[in-house]
Amino acid sequence: MIPDIRGQPITDVRVVDGGWPEFAGRCGELEMFVRQPTPEDNGKIIAGAQRVSAWTRERYEMRNLPTLKEDDPKHIWDWPPFQPGQTGWFFVVMVVNDAVVGFGRHHYQQGDHQAMKWYDCPAGDMVAECSLCVVDDLQGKGLGSLYGQINKLVCKTMGAKWLVGTTYTKGAMMRIRHRDGFDVTWVSDDGTQCRVRGKL
Ligand SMILES: CC(C)(COP(=O)(O)OP(=O)(O)OC[C@H]1O[C@@H](n2cnc3c(N)ncnc32)[C@H](O)[C@@H]1OP(=O)(O)O)[C@@H](O)C(=O)NCCC(=O)NCCS
Predict the structure, then answer these.
(1) What dotted CATH number matches 10-199?
(2) Ligand 1, residues 8, 61, 133, 182: which to mutate, most atoms within 8 A of Cβ?
(3) pTM across the whole model
(4) What is the pLDDT of residues 45-59, one digit of tens each?
């Protein structure tokens, strides 16, 4: 049973020792771990993915999906450990009580890279473009807000100076970004989507 943690203070956001950095944060009685998955996680990931609706998946993927190359791994648990300072993609899972409750996507490039042009970040700064989703039956309980704080530490640890993303102008994600003081650098013509940027 996962409690509703909305509005409770987020504490103890940290890097967990051992192996590829694992990150954690606490909110009330709930602790969330965030890490790049390994092949042993495949059962938990499949179970988590079954709790993600097509609606959520579409919002999670939005624009700027990774351009997968022929030899890129086919599963998120097969991607090699991402190293600080590296550019490119990796994926993380949110784990609570040993279950996968959400997914995150990370893309790192320098500010002047074509993929980051919308965000107006300085040319030489590393930029982390992130997207996330929480499984449908747990949305609206505060997990996305907790992940938002842990994720900033992930981005900083990987060398980013900016955290950016494309999102819907209305919805939970913008609530989280507003609270963190992100600014909007681009709005789609129909006003439904925007790109936001926050200094880490
Ligand atoms: C966006 C998402 C990750 C947020 O995670 P979450 O656990 O549901 O969010 P939280 O419960 O932490 O709520 C965050 C804030 O949004 C508000 N909120 C929650 N659901 C909302 C909704 N449907 N519409 C508007 N605001 C909403 C909450 O009240 C909270 O604001 P507050 O703290 O000021 O009260 C999650 O809802 C999700 O996976 N959505 C589908 C995928 C998606 O849209 N991803 C974003 C694209 S990058």
Answers:
(1) 3.40.630.30
(2) 133
(3) 0.95
(4) 999 999 999 999 998
